[in-house]
Amino acid sequence: MIVYAIHALVSVFAVMNPLGNLPIFMSLTAGYTLEEQRKTASKAIGIAFLILLIFLVLGNIIFSVFGITVAAFRVAGGILIFGIAYNLLHAKASHVHAPHPEEHQESEEKDDISVTPLATPLIAGPGTIATVMALAAAPNELNNSIAVFIGFTVVLAGTFLIFRYAGNISKRLGQTELNVISRLMGLLLAVIAVQMGAAGLIGLFPALAH
Predict the structure, then answer these.
(1) pLDDT of residue 189
(2) What's the half-sphere exposure (Cβ side, CA atoms, 13 Å) at 29?
(3) pLDDT for the residue numbered 94
């Protein structure tokens, strides 16, 4: 379980990319006091935690209701995550993972941006949700779910610390360094996406394994 928890942690960290999201967080909270910035980060992380927990717990129910197989979800999740990885490799924000321009503009007109676009889609976006659900799926569903829960909880805690000390971190990491980190995360995420998609294809077409 420990090995799988580490695998889940790395996968969720790569797709969530908290360091890559740092400039977006800074721009969304521009003009906030330090206390307001930290309160917003805390609330956003709490909401993102609830979103991921709901999809982790209700994953099998969602599969049953819509007649989705785990293998099919892994293939779809792999394609979605590979799209995010492709953008990260080019140091660009994914349209799936990052807020759309309309959401960004709307957030600037709101008093509270912690729910959207911070909690979702920035932190707990479709890519992160798909990763959590795919990693928690059978076999060993209970052990997988516990490992994934540990993994995304640790990543969210790290994201909170990154956002809490965003000012200090941004002074030490320039855009070039952030782009390098994004590309490394993109490479890692691409490998994870291919592995996830391959596992799903073998589940759909067992003959491929021979």
Answers:
(1) 82
(2) 25
(3) 57
Cα separation of 27 and 118, whole Å?
A: 11
pLDDT score recorded for residue 37 = 93
Which residue type does 97 have?
H
- ∠ CA 132-135-141, nearest 5°, is 110
Supply 191's token pair: 């490998």
107: left (phi over 0), alpha (psi -120 to 50) or beta: alpha
Q: Which of 125, 133, 83 is nearest to 103 (CA)?
A: 125
Q: Do the beta carbons of residue 78 and residue 196 sit within 8 Å?
A: yes
Residue 95 to residues 16, 65, 85, 135, 157, Cα–Cα distance (Å): 13, 28, 12, 23, 24
Radius of gyration for the chain, computed over Cα atoms and rounded to the nearest angstrom = 17
For tokens 């976006």, the residue is 125
Nearest-angstrom CA–CA distance, 74 and 80? 10
Cis before 18 (ω within 30): no
Give the Cβ contact number of residue 137 at 10 Å: 24
CA distance 131 to 8: 9
Q: Is the pLDDT of residue 121 over 90?
A: no
Peptide bond just before 121 cis, omega within 30 deg: yes
- The model's pTM is 0.79
